[in-house]
Structures are given as structure tokens and as C-alpha cells.
Specification:
Elements (H helix, E strand, L loop, with lengths): L3 H13 L2 H8 L3 H15 L4 E4 L2 E4 L1 H27 L6 E6 L1 H4 L2 H12 L4 E6 L2 H10 L4 E9 L11 E16 L9 E3 L7 E4 L2 H13 L5 E5 L3 H9 L5 E4 H6 L6 E7 L2 E10 L8 H11 L9
Parallel strand pairs: 3-4, 3-5, 7-11, 8-9
Antiparallel strand pairs: 1-2, 5-12, 6-10, 6-11, 6-12
Helix pairs in contact: 1-2, 1-4, 2-3, 6-11
């Protein structure tokens, strides 16, 4: 019932907010786009857009098409890439997304090894958090992702979707970062429940969710006073006594920037599992499986000094 061009049309209207914008993006005239939309609405017997001022927004039916279209268009893009690779039409470029601390530690070691083993492959690196990376991976905008998920030691950890391939790179410890003069600096491990009255500094979206979950498990809501996605800024804020925060081993290995900041384990122990992810449909594409193997194998060579 629905053709690829229908998904493309609805996606373009959603992103541009107008029929004229969709027409420009798709390379059609506005009357052609209007006619295509009217034909689709007659076919489905329901309106797909409505006007709010000068903006076109999707109706509930239009939103259903857009939501399912993400997976459809992602599959089409992955199929195109795979066919081009098989036909030798691409230059061996692979698009990799990574969160910042992995990009500063794991990725350089892996790409250096990949260059030695497969000099014909080129990797474009994009910095993204796990949520962004998985969304772009499923849309076919990137080929592989390095993501991190927080959980308590002993839990099962993240569960992949059936059409995804996940490879564990490492399980890294999560530490509490405190000023050297803080009372917690005198102990090796601190119960999370004892930190309910602290002023907290939150990190990236995944880091923040990890903090909220750990605090909820300990029976409190953290008093978050500051937010920053920059793990170097986190350390500097702790270093001047503005609060405490959670940092992972990779964040500390990437940059320990303040000698007034010390790191202590929290109980129950929290873990961030770092994984490399590709879509199952990509495992036959030359270069992507090699990149995945190299990332996992190279992790053992990443220097992780004890905090």
C-alpha cells in the first residue's frame, strides 16, 4: 500500500514544516508534492497533515507513517550501502559514532590498528551519546556505534534488539569524584545511601540517568546543582568544591585534570558496559565486521591507570 516515496514525502514534510520545503528537499515542484500528498490521503482515506499558522504538521495518521518510515528508510539506506560496497562503488569509508571518553581512549588505538591491518579502509568519526548513536544507526546514517550503558554490578545489563549485533568491549567501573578535602576522600568505598545530602553535578544524558537510577536504588533523589556534558569540566567543578559527581574509568583515563580531585568506589558497585554495535544486516559488508573486531580486540591495549 505504501511506497518508499510516500515515506520520503512524509519525512520531508515533518522535517521542513511545509510542502514548499519538502518540495525543495525532494527536488519536486510544490504542485507535484501537493498532488502526491492528496493522492496518498485519498488512498488512505485520512488526512496526513494539518496547518498551524504557516506550518504544516503531521496528523496522528501522518505520525504513524513517519515513525514506521524511520525503520523503512534506514533499511533502504543500509541496503544501498551494502550493494554499493559489494559492487565496489564506495571507497571503503565507514561511519563510526562514539561517546567522547571512548573516542579519546578506545577509538585512537582501534583506528591505528585498523590502518595497519586494512589500509584501504577510511573511518569517519562522529561524537554522539548512546541515544543519538542508536537512532542514527537504525536510520542507516552511521555504520557502527560505540555506546555505554550504566547498571549495577550483577544485573543483566542492556538487551539488544533482534536485528542488532552487540559486542562487549569492556565493563568499566563508575567512581565518585570528590574534592580532596571531602570526608569521603578518606575511605576506599562509600555507600551510595550516605550521599543523599550531597550537591551533585550531573553529566551527559546517559550519565545523568545512571546517577538518577543509582540514587533511586539507594532511596533518594540527588540534589543536582550543575549540569555539563564535558567530563573535564566535571572534574574542574568538583576540584573547586562545587559538588560531587560520578565519573567512569574511561573518563578519568582520558583526562585527570585536577590533582585536588580524588576518586572512590561507591557501593553497590556501578558499571558502565561499553559496547560496539552494528545492525545485523551490516555484518556481511566488507570493512564493518573488520572494524567491529578491531575495536573489541584493541580495547585490551587501552591504558587504564588506576584512579
Amino acid at each position: 500500500m505504501l511506497e518508499i516515496r510516500s515515506f520520503l514525502l512524509i519525512d520531508a514534510i515533518h522535517r521542513t514544516g511545509s510542502l514548499s520545503g519538502a518540495a525543495r528537499e525532494l527536488g519536486y515542484s510544490q504542485p507535484a508534492v501537493t498532488q502526491q500528498l492528496q493522492q496518498l490521503e485519498r488512498k488512505l482515506r485520512t488526512p496526513l497533515i494539518r496547518r498551524i499558522g504557516r506550518t504544516s504538521v503531521l496528523t496522528e495518521a501522518g505520525e504513524v507513517i513517519r515513525r514506521h518510515g524511520e525503520d523503512v528508510l534506514g533499511s533502504v539506506e543500509r541496503a544501498r550501502i551494502e550493494l554499493e560496497l559489494i559492487a565496489g562503488l564506495r571507497t571503503g569509508e565507514i561511519r563510526l559514532a562514539s561517546f567522547p571518553s571512548a573516542a579519546a581512549t578506545i577509538v585512537p588505538v582501534a583506528l591505528q590498528q585498523l590502518r595497519q591491518d586494512h589500509p584501504g579502509l577510511t573511518v569517519r568519526l562522529f561524537e554522539m551519546n548512546a541515544t543519538q548513536a542508536m537512532r542514527e544507526l537504525r536510520k542507516g546514517e552511521i555504520d557502527a556505534a560505540i555506546v555505554g550503558h550504566y547498571f549495577t554490578e550483577g544485573d543483566a545489563g542492556p538487551k539488544p534488539e533482534p536485528d542488532e549485533i552487540w559486542r562487549t568491549i569492556m565493563d568499566e567501573d563508575v567512581y565518585l569524584a570528590v574534592h580532596r578535602g571531602h570526608a569521603a576522600a578518606d575511605t576506599d568505598e562509600i555507600p551510595m545511601s550516605s550521599l543523599a545530602s550531597e550537591r551533585w553535578i550531573a553529566g551527559c544524558p546517559e550519565c545523568r540517568r545512571g546517577l538518577l537510577t543509582a540514587a533511586a536504588d539507594a532511596g533518594f533523589v540527588p540534589d543536582i546543582k550543575l549540569d555539563t556534558d564535558d567530563y573535564i569540566a566535571l572534574q574542574k567543578l568538583v576540584g573547586v568544591g562545587l559538588g560531587v559527581c560520578q565519573l567512569t574509568h574511561l573518563m578519568i583515563a582520558a583526562a585527570h585534570v585536577d590533582s585536588d580531585v580524588v576518586f572512590r568506589r561507591v557501593t553497590p558497585h556501578r558499571i558502565r558496559r561499553v559496547s560496539a554495535v552494528i545492525m545485523d544486516s551490516s555484518k556481511r559488508i566488507p570493512g564493518i565486521s573488520e572494524l567491529l573486531d578491531t575495536i573489541v580486540d584493541s580495547a585490551a591495549n587501552v591504558p587504564l591507570p588506576t584512579p
